[in-house]
Amino acid sequence: MLEDKNMIRAVLSENMGKKEVNLLLGILLSDVEQLESVFNMIFEPDERIAWHAAWVIEKVSELDASLISEDKNLHLINFILKNKHQGLQRLCLSILFNLPVYLPVSVNFINLCFDQMLSTRQSVGVQVLSMKMLIKICKIEKDFVPEMIASLENAEDSMYPAGFVAAKRNALKSLNINKK
Predict the structure, then answer these.
(1) Among 41, 78, 111, 119, which residue's beta carbon has the most beta carbons within 10 A?
(2) CB-CB contact of 59 with 25 (8 Å)
(3) Residue 159 in contact with residue 119, Cβ under 8 Å?
C-alpha cells in the first residue's frame, strides 16, 4: 500500500500527460483509499502535486461523481474560497461542476462565483466555470435567477474574451428558458 502511495506521489510530482492521468485514473476508480489520498493531495502546498492531483480528481468526477462525497464537496468549496491559484481554481470548479449541488449552498461560494465570473482579471476558464456553477445553483435556488440574468446582461461584451461572451449568450438563453 505504501508503495502505491509513493508511486502515485512520484507520478504526480513529475511532468504528466494523458498517459499518466489514465494510469492513475485506473488505480483510483478501483481503490477508494488511494482516491482519498490523491484527493487530499489537492490541498498540499506543493502546487505541482496539488494541480496534478486536482487534474486526476477532475477526471474521476467526470467518470463517477458518486466517488466524491458531500464532505469532499464542502472541502473543495472551502479550499476555493481561500486558494487564489487560477489553475487550481479552474480544476476545483470543474470538479464541483461535475458533482451534485448540496444544500444549503455557501453564500460565500455564491458570492465568489459571481465575483470570479465578472472579474476581467480571472482566466476565461475560471470565469466560465463560475458562470456554469451559478447556473447549476440557479436551477435549484430559483431566487438567484433574476440576479444572475441581471449580472450577465450588465456585463459589457467588449470587456470580455470571446469564450466568456459565447458562454454568457448560452447562459442567458438557458436562464430565460428555465425562468418561464
Answers:
(1) 41
(2) yes
(3) no
Q: CA–CA separation, 55 vs 57, rounded Å?
A: 6
> pLDDT by residue (tens digit) across 114-125?
999 999 999 999
Measured between alpha carbons, how far is 116 from 110 in angstroms, rounded to an integer?
10
Of 4, 6, 2, 73, the closest CA to residue 42 belongs to 73
Amino acid identity for residue 137 in this structure: I
| CB of 153 closer than 8 Å to CB of 172 | yes
Q: Using CA atoms, how far apart are residues 80 and 49, in angstroms rounded to an integer?
A: 17
Class of residue 117 by CB neighbours under 10 A (exposed 0-12, middle 13-18, buried 19+): buried
Instruction: Look up residue 149 and give its three cell numbers.
Output: 440574468
Cα–Cα distance for residue pair 98/60, rounded to 1 Å: 10
Closest CA to 49 of 92, 12, 91, 90: 12
Coil vs helix vs strand at 42: coil
